[in-house]
């Protein structure tokens, strides 16, 4: 028997998949509401205050962007600003 978290994720994925028929989406939405009392939010491991994103991972990604040579200077500045806004300590660019 699959874990409840995976079942809820699968139903939510099917609902948002454009290749799934409308009748299947309606059926999956009904099952999600019946089994999990709505959107299945209780079983969404990625949900948090940051709009469904884990703040630690967001900060890690922003820090990585500041060191990535394929990111423009403007993009690096935006990443540093967002990191500072989140309370992190952005590193000054070395390049």
UniProtKB/TrEMBL annotation:
Chain intervals with Basic and acidic residues compositional bias: 74-84
Region (Disordered), start-end ranges: 1-95
Domain of life according to the entry: Eukaryota
Protein name stated in the entry: Conidiation-specific protein 6
